[in-house]
Specification:
Largest sheet: 5 strands, antiparallel
Shape: globular
């Protein structure tokens, strides 16, 4: 397993991945409660190296959708859109399922509202999947047939010794609740999201991972029978947003909470530091006082955190504390980001 630091500017890494030019649909954000009480600010754990980067997508040799801009969103958790606390309460749920918690998968489609997103995982992408994990236990769990990512009809996947791989496995077209996605367009009640393409070589795991590009690498989440959110497998487990459609897969629009449109104004609820880049270790370039109104021009998700670029520097808009999101301004979202173990 590899550590996930950022040895190069993320823009260089993204350009090397040959991503498509992307666009955004005209969708109004969902109404969310933006009220925020005074919170004592605590510095979150820094989990990535400094990235002095004003985020922009790389250009490529092909264009999927013309004349628009990308827009970030989060995939809703099951209790947000289902009539039950979790899908285990659905009438058609398999009552033979013995666990009180299940991986919170979000189906992805090859076409708007249709098409199986299943595809073949190559050995190279299995190596990338393995190297995304923080330890061998996580690698073994994510590669288990039937655990969520890989079809249960696959043979056992020797993820720790791929020289023993005899048949490349079939993977489900899925993402997971709470994760960030980058919306390219909307059509027929679904949105197209940016994906990595399985026909390309995998990116460098140190350059593209959950901390550096969480819209391209998913953190596997889970939900209990009562609707309690957690981590699939009871640990930090990751998988790339990869599929066999170069222009990306589609997801049901009702599963998506869009980030508020840019630019927008929000009031700081605590005093905070403005930084040169979207990282706590980046140089301080000023600050904001509680109650001060700021204008946010750009988002940069980093792991389960979200940074915003203002006219005077980067501000941490949201971070996790004891598994719950802390919002430092009146900007907020209804969908909780994935939990990270310390």
């Amino acid at each position: 397993m590899k550590s996930h630091h950022i040895p190069l500017l993320l823009l260089v890494a993204l350009a090397a991945c040959n991503f498509p030019v992307t666009t955004v649909p005209t969708i109004e954000p969902q109404a969310t409660d933006n009220s925020q009480g005074t919170t004592v600010m605590q510095e979150p754990v820094q989990q990535a190296s400094p990235t002095p980067l004003v985020f922009e997508l790389s250009k490529s040799s092909y264009t999927c959708v013309d004349d628009a801009e990308p827009r970030f969103a989060r995939l809703m958790h099951d209790p947000q859109w289902m009539p039950w606390p979790s899908r285990m309460g659905a009438p058609d749920w398999n009552r033979g399922f013995s666990s009180d918690r299940y991986p919170e998968t979000v189906p992805l489609w090859g076409r708007p509202r249709s098409g199986d997103g299943e595809f073949t995982y190559t050995r190279e992408w299995l190596e990338y999947l393995r190297d995304l994990q923080p330890h061998e236990e996580a690698a073994i769990w994510v590669a288990l047939p039937g655990a969520g990512l890989f079809d249960r009809f696959n043979d056992s996947i020797p993820i720790l010794n791929l020289d023993e791989l005899s048949v490349e496995p079939k993977a489900e077209g899925i993402s997971s609740g709470g994760n960030v996605v980058l919306v390219l367009e909307t059509r027929n009640g679904s949105v197209r999201i940016q994906m990595l393409f399985v026909g390309d070589d995998p990116p460098d795991v140190d350059a593209v991972n959950y901390q550096t590009a969480p819209w391209l690498v998913t953190k596997f989440t889970s939900v209990s029978i009562e609707g309690e959110l957690g981590n699939a497998g009871g640990m930090d487990v990751y998988f790339p947003n990869v599929g066999d459609e170069r222009c990306g897969y589609w997801v049901d629009l009702q599963r998506v909470e869009m980030f508020p449109r840019l630019p927008f104004e929000a009031a700081a609820t605590v005093s905070n530091t403005l930084r040169e880049g979207p990282a706590n270790s980046s140089r301080s370039v000023g600050g904001v006082a509680a109650g001060q109104v700021i204008r946010v021009l750009e988002y940069f998700p980093q792991g389960s955190d979200v940074w915003g670029r203002t006219e005077n520097g980067w501000l941490l808009l949201e971070y996790l504390q004891n598994g719950q999101p802390v919002y430092t301004t009146t900007w907020s979202m209804a969908t909780r980001p994935p939990i990270l173990f310390p």
